[in-house]
Every structure is written in structure tokens, then in C-alpha cells.
Design brief:
The complex is a heterodimer of chains A (238) and B (429).
Chain A lengths: L3 E10 L9 E9 L3 E5 L6 H8 L7 E6 L2 E2 L5 H11 E4 L11 H6 L6 H9 L4 H11 L4 H5 L7 H13 L5 E5 L7 H18 L2 E6 L10 E4 H4 L11
Parallel strand pairs in A: 3-8, 3-9, 6-7, 7-8
Antiparallel strand pairs in A: 1-2, 1-4, 4-5
Chain B lengths: L1 H10 L1 H34 L6 E5 L3 H9 L9 E2 H9 L3 E13 L2 E6 L2 H5 L1 E2 L3 E2 L2 E4 L7 E4 L1 H7 L6 E2 L18 E7 L10 E4 H11 L12 H13 L11 E2 L1 E6 L4 H10 L6 E4 L1 H44 L1 H9 L4 H42 L10 H32 L6
Parallel strand pairs in B: 4-11, 8-10
Antiparallel strand pairs in B: 1-13, 1-14, 2-12, 3-4, 3-13, 5-6, 7-10, 8-11, 9-10
The chains are: A alpha/beta (238), B alpha+beta (429).
Amino acid sequence: MSDCCVAIHGLTFAWPGAQQPVLAIPQWSVNKGERVLVRGASGSGKSTLLSLIAGIHSASSGYIKVLDHDLSTLSQRQRDRLRANEIGYIFQQFNLLPYLSAQQNVELAVQFAPARRQRIAQRGQTVAEAATTLLNHLGLTDAQQQQSAQTLSVGQQQRVAAARALLGAPALIIADEPTSALDESHRNEFINLLFQECAEQGSTLLFVTHDATLATQFPQVVELSELNTAPQQGEADV
Amino acid sequence: MFKLALASLWNRRTTAWLTVLSIAISTILLLGVERVRVQAQQNFANTISGTDLIVGARTGSTQLLLSSVFHIGALTNTLSWNSYQHLQQLPGVAWTIPMAMGDSVRGYPVVATNTDWFAHFQYGQQQNLKFAAGSAFSVLDTAVLGADVADKLGLDVGDPLTVSHGSGGMSFSDHDEHPFQIQGILARTGTPIDQAVYIPLEGLGLVHGEYQPADDEHGPNHEHEHEHEHEHEHEHSDSITAEPPVYTLSAVLIGLESKPLALRLVRDINTYRGEPLTAIMPGLALQEFWRTLQLFERALLIISVLVVITGLFGMLTTLLASLRERRREMAVLRSLGAGPFTLFGLLVSEAIVLTAIGVSVGVGLLFTVLALAAPWFQATLGFVVSPSWLSSTEWLYLGLILSAAILMSFIPAWRAYRNALADGLTVKL
């Protein structure tokens, strides 16, 4: 078992029908337990990279290993299962299903993830207890946890999203510009909470943003433009 | 996962309810048409039973059937009393019922007959006529009413009754010189029998004797005592009497000793030399007539099937439209590890939930409507709608609606599947 959480080698990715690859990463790896900030301008292929790591899309060539699983050798179903069990994903915004309560949104994390359920059970908790614990840590009151997700503020919604990503201790947390809708004080608070919880569970954090001012908070910062050797054409950020 | 589909639907409950409603309405229509069709046919077949032949003057079989059994239309030709006597003597004839029609009581048809009518006429499953009140007519100026006639006109045993010439609702030639007295009211049958008035042939002879002395044997100078005598004679011997109560009849119903005789008798009667006659077998004629109605029936069925399809298309539209606003929801589920096939299943199960609720609501409403409308059907159409549980055909229709809905939901489900693969975790809002 290596220390690598994510390992990329000779990766290229082009959209179907496109001549030029949008991503070409000769070599990159993230070790377990690291907190890495990937910075890149809009259109530099940040989201594409994340969807490749999450196993939504497949690389055109080269390989991506997530927790020693070579994604290119896994079936669609196996990649979905790996994502469910081992990756917590936080979107920029609108992370939650508006018709469920905050707590139900968090519990949704284990819906497709037996491994996460198992880890919660091993710690002697029920899924509901684990969700409540996490939401408490992230500063949501009991009343707020039962509220419908759409009645929460954006800052609260992002914390619920973080709790959902963290529930059941997946190995990798991917955050795709999760703070861009927050003001500065909320942003720093959110990042600190995220660090704390990741450290507590031993999860690796891959944080993607265009915002260079966040760089000071991360022990490790990577510029996507330095990783990516594909010619930049200023395409839409897909 | 199913709970998630329900929660998601509940979030879009306004459009969901509308979809349910449109499916419910189309279900009501489809099942309603089917039910009316089956029950109409049943009611139709129930109007007459036990009668093996209907004989009238030369005419079409449908016309003879409709006018003699359903009181629809008038028979322009009549058969003579002599022919009636001839029919009685044919081999194998067990009983006969003479019928003379053409008069009416405030729009309700008058059937002049004799007591054989009450003794031999059968409807439904070989049921004999029963009296709700009073008894069969015993003297010539008494009458028996069908259940509906008594209800509608508010008449009871002992009340007087005026017969009008002609079958219209309003007649200028009331036979009010000769009022009849009501002697009996028949129990409800749910057939056209409920809608008619029954008087003795002699009574008809009397009133027509007043009106058209040339047609009938009863001149104005006839005494009532004479009529009584005459009726006595008639009751005692069905064979040759000196003076018939009427010269002509509209139709004669015949019961046979054995059914297989019917075919031969039809041929014999149709080739009778005395006068041109038509004999029909009511069961066959009913079927034949029903076949002519099938075009109409099919048109109704096609319309209701189209309405069901419209309802399902409504659901399809709603589901497709919802996909756009639910891309975020799909992306979230996808990020949580839901496979594209899970999203496919989510859409299909949504369609199943909508259709199942719609169909159930529709069936519920149908039974409510049937319960509420049954008295109206009975009163205006003389048509009994029984609130029986779903038939196998109706279950089949419900199953077809559900299957069609599932098949249709594959379209939005397939799109959700494709979107899941193409969009991944990013959503272009």
C-alpha cells in the first residue's frame, strides 16, 4: 500500500470529437493526508481534472490511480462505487437537495456507499448520530439540522455540504471552489473547519480554486498551469 | 431510493398533482366507456329472455326487434288476427303473447295484450314479471303500469288513466271517453318494460272502436257487458272465436316447446301464404343489432384511448421539463456515487408512482361517479349500472396504462442517463 492518494502519470484528456487535449499532465501525485490547493484560472481545466479524478470521465491516455485503483481498468459501475465510498465532493454552491432537511442531506452520503456505512458502524455510531456529530462540529444547531436545506443561508449550506462529504470518513475530499459564494470571514472559518475535520478523519483534501489569496492557508499549493502541458485555448471551464 | 423519488416528487407536487389528475381523468374515461359498453350490452340482452320468436308483418328484423321489445320506432304494417290464430296452432308452439301498439299515455307507449303477457313474458335470467302493487288486468277497462311510468306520472292502483292515440307526447286525440283504471303496477325490471303501459286487447278495441269504428269490431253501440263476455270467451279458448277483440296486431311473441324448432318455424312463418310475415329469433336479432352499434362503440373506445395517450404525454412533458430544473439534483446524486442507471431508475419509478396514483384516483372517482349517476341512468335511460368490482378487461386496461407509462418514461429516463454521463459533476445553469 503506497502513500499515494492520487497518482497521475502521462494523463491526457480531450473532449469527444476535439482534436486538442484540454489536459495533459505528465506526472503528479497527492499523498495521503495532504491538504493541497490547486489553483487555476477559469478555463484552465480544473473541473475537468476533478471529474477525471472522481471517475466521471475517463482519461484519453495515461492513468489516474485513486487509492491504488487504476481508474482506467475499472468499469463505470466500479468507478461510481469507488466515488461513493472514498470521495466526498463539495460543489461551488447548490450542493443540497432542497426538499430534504440538512440532516437528511448529510445522510444521503451513505446511500450508495456501503463502505462509509461500515466505517460509521465500526465507530459504534448510527448514520444519524454520525451526521449529527459532524453537523454539530461544523456549527449547525439542532434546529438548523432539521430545517429544510433551502431555508439555510449559503454559509450554512456549504457547511452541510462539507458534513456530507466528510460523513463516513472517505479517503479523499474534493472541494470545487466551495468558498467562492462566501465572504472572507466565512471563507476562512469554512476552510479551518474543513482542515480540522479532514485531519481528524485522516482524509486527504484536494481544494480547487481560482482565488490566489487562499494560497497562504494551504501547506501545499499547485498551479494547474504548471502541471498542465496542454496548449491553452481559453475554452469554457468545463 | 424510492423514498428519494417520493421526496423529489413531493417537492414538485403542483405539477405532480396535475399530472396525476390528467391520468385519473383519462382512466375514468377509459373505464367508464368500457363499463357502459359492457353494461349496455348486458342490459340489452336482458330485455327479453325465454321468448323464442318474435313475429310481425313483413319488415326488417331490427325494426321488429326495436319496436316490439324496446318500444323504439313504430311498426307501420300489422298482422291480422287470423295470422295470430294460425301461429297459435303451429306445431311446437307452447305459448303466444299478442301485442298491439301505437297508443300512448303522456308519451309512454301503450301495449295492448292479454294476460298471457304476465304469465309468459320473461326478462333477464328467465325472470317472470312480478307485481309491486295490485294484479294483472281482469276487465277490459283496467291497465297495468311499468314501474317507471307509475313513478314518473305519480299514479297508483285505482287511479284513472287516459290513453291517447298515437305515440307522441302530446296528442290531440285523447281517448278520454274511455278512461282506464289502474289495476296493477309491475315491479322494476331495469328494462323497457318499466316504461310502458299495459292494457287488454279488448280495451284497445273499445277505444279504437270509438275512434275508428271501421277498423275494429267494437262499434259505439257495444255494451260493456258484451265486452266482459267476450273477454271470458277469449280467456277460455285461445283458438277460434267468433269476434276477435282487435283485427290487427303489431307483433306476436312466441315460446316454443323445444328451442331447436325455432329455425324451422322461422322458415315456415316467413313463407306463410296467408299474409307476408317476418319471424325473428330475438337473441340473434339482438346480436345483429349490437353489431351495428359496434362502430359507435369502437369510436368511443378509440377516443378514450386517445385521451389516455394525451394524459400520458402530459406526464412525459412534465418529466422532460423537470429534467432541466433537476440537473443540479442529478449532479449531486452523481457526486454521491449514484450510477447513471440509478438516475434512470429514479425517473422510471417517478412515472410509476405518478401513474399508479393517477389510476387509483381515477378508479376511486369512477366508482363515486357511478354511484352518484346510477339513479340518473336508471331514470333517463332505463339502464342499470351495477357498481361491480373491476372486471378482468378493466384490470387489463389499467395494466396497459401502467405499462405504457413505464415505456414512455424511458424517454426522460434515457435522457437523464445520457446527461449523467455527459454532464458529470458540472452543471451549466
